[in-house]
Amino acid sequence: MPFLSWGKLHPFQNWFPNSFRQEKTDTVRCIKSCRPTDEACVRDPVHTISHTVISLPTFREFSRPEEIIFLRAVTPLYPANQADIIFDITEGNLRDSFDIIKRYEDSMTVGVVRQVRPIVGPFYAVLRLEMNYVLGGVISHRNVVNVHIFVSEFWF
């Protein structure tokens, strides 16, 4: 399966076409599609790979964790053989500036990425987040989100 690689995106606004609507976050998602005869592809647990860009200010006052990213997974109301969803930050967490916690909201399992330490910009990092679906102690599939984080030197 080909992985999307952006390389260095600075400056961010030059990467997107003019017709693309720029907001605080933008996402590109790749979904795996295997040929039936490609056994390695079929066995690879990764189903989707997303790249998301988020831009943050330098927080002038940092007294508690800031919730910055929400990974949502729809779960059945009455789970029979429901997978346990495990969220993890596997790369890019320089200085342990971020963590991820699990919540349940409106029939969804939500992984909340929080900035837990102050970061003074300019700063750039790519967090690799994994959402693993575990059945019977085995990962049935995985979704990967690469979050490109830009922290401005300004508080506004």
From TrEMBL:
Residues in Fibulin C-terminal Ig-like domain copies: 47-153
Keywords noted in UniProt: Repeat
Stored Pfam families: Fibulin_C
Top-level taxon of the source organism: Eukaryota
Name of the protein in question: Fibulin-1
Protein's organism: Cricetulus griseus
Taxonomic lineage from the root: Eukaryota, Metazoa, Chordata, Craniata, Vertebrata
